[in-house]
Specification:
It contains 12 helices and 4 strands; from the N terminus they run H-H-H-E-H-H-H-H-E-E-H-H-H-H-E-H. It has 381 residues and is of the alpha+beta class. The protein folds into 3 domains: 2-55 and 352-380; 59-186 and 333-338; 194-326, Helix Hairpins, CATH 1.10.287. A 4-stranded antiparallel sheet has the order 2-3-1-4. Strand 2 and strand 3 form a beta hairpin.
Length: 381
Amino acid sequence: MIKIGGFLEAGASGVSKLLKTRTGKLLGRLLLPRQTFSIALIIVLLAIFYWGFFASDRYVSEAHIVIHRTDLASSPAGSSSSMVEQMLLRDYLLSVDMLNKLDAKLNLRAHYSDRQLDFLSRLWSPNISQEWFHSYYLSRVSVEFDINACVLIIKAQGYNPKTAQAIAAMMVEEGERTMNESMHRVAEEQVAFLEQQVTQWSERALKARLAVIAFQDRKGLISPQSTVENLAGVINRMEAQLTELEARRNIQTGYLAPTAPGIIDLDLQIAAVQKQIDQEKARLVSHSAKTLNRTVEEFQRLEMAAEFADTVYKTTLGALEKGRVEATRTLVNIFVLQHPTLPQYSMEPRRIYNIVVFVLMTLFLAGIVHLLAAIIRDHKD
């Protein structure tokens, strides 16, 4: 409370000092009740005259549009992607690029800067800078997004009905064309990337297959795996034969001497079969780099690489075909729920609304000024 009281006293002291100066005395004379409301009345009359008789009529053409693709399954109405596309379209319709295209075709600078229009609402000069022209364009065109209905509402103002309708119609047409161009550009870039991938993987698959063939030619084997399997079968048969021979020898040693011809013959057969088994196993497994197990491992690696390259090539080829189909189907259509209207009555400016609001605001400010004048007079006394 002490701080607030001190602040008020300081304010009163400052006002008293101000009133003692020439500026303060002049301010005190200007803030008389009669002068305050007289000035307010003059301003109100000027506003009534401007909006009632002087302000130029502005006609509003309105269009309602919805974006949807030809491939409805990819972007159903109301989806997040559809909403993003509509917001992108809204941004483009309000952009400088759109303004330049409208100006080039409809000569908006000349239309909005016509000398027959009132000086407060028209464009000041047809040679005004791009930034000011775009700012003026945003005051005459609006694109609102209805999030509940997922509809873009385009409103374009012109100083005659046909120009307003032409602006809205060109915005709808140009928006659809630009969106389709952007979609096609993205689709073409995707197809070009897939074509590049198909070419690369086709070359890799061919090189991998040629590496397999070169390996087969170098080793003299069509399928090392089959050779190993056949060799393993041979070893199994010889081991069975060896087991049979050893069993026969064991039986004959029960009633024959070790030096008997039959035992010697069996020993020779057993030694020969065992030697053959050892040789065949050496072909399969040993420390040498020329064994079949190493050959099979190297062949399998080459074959796996070839199969992988071939699989990826088939996948990219399928993706390319799918991408080409989607590129032809990826079209953005602007479904016009309401075509640009040809206005018959000027909706702007809202004369009665503007007059009422301006009168209320002026009276409100006049009341504040009157209160300030009363405070100053109290401190002056």
